[in-house]
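Justification of resources, computational component.

The compute hours requested in this renewal are based largely on the per-chain cost of generating structure records like the one below. Each record pairs the submitted sequence with a full structure-token output. That output is archived, and it is also reused by downstream analysis tasks.
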Amino acid sequence: MKSSPCEARSSYLGFVAHEFRNPLATALWCAQLLGRLAPEERGGPRGLKLAAMAQRAMARVGRLLEDHFLVERLEVRGLPLRPEPLELGAAVRAAAGAAAVAGATVVVAAGELSVSADHGLLQRCLEALLAAAGKEGAAIQVEIGASAAGASVRVLGAPLPPEALERPAKGAPSDPTGRALGLFAARAAAEAMGATLAIDGGAALLCFPGDGGAP
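The structure output for this chain reads:
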């Protein structure tokens, strides 16, 4: 039986709360232990380890916050868009750096392709796709191509399940890096720009319609 919108929303928020709860608990635990250490110990191996754990936990919280509130603002159309001509190859390379993905190979099928898109949303979308494709060190290949329908970006790497872009719910897999909402936010960003994002044979396929894909 299909759940109601309210039930789906409640399940999503339950998942989000769970994702926030774990890293916040870790950061609080680290802060409490650091407070109990003698001043000379805080700069030693134990103190540095606790500080690094707290930093990783809060970085996870930061990613979750950004993705959650991006989706919230897009769903109520509370984020003004500023479309501009953007070169896809350059956007992919910038996103690879932001996602801390090394070794991504970019294959451009038809010269330098540009699309009309919001710079911030395009970067967030591509960053999430590259991070997911490079999970656990998987090799990434990005294919950019043009057709009569427009321009496309295909991101291949770690195989993505068919439901990877769906709104997560209670029981969905957690992500220790804080990217549990990344792909869902990427789909929302793509749709806000008038593009489509789908899973095609385990790869992410981002398509921009119209003549914006002309080289």
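The longest helix spans residues 5-36. The mean pLDDT is 89.
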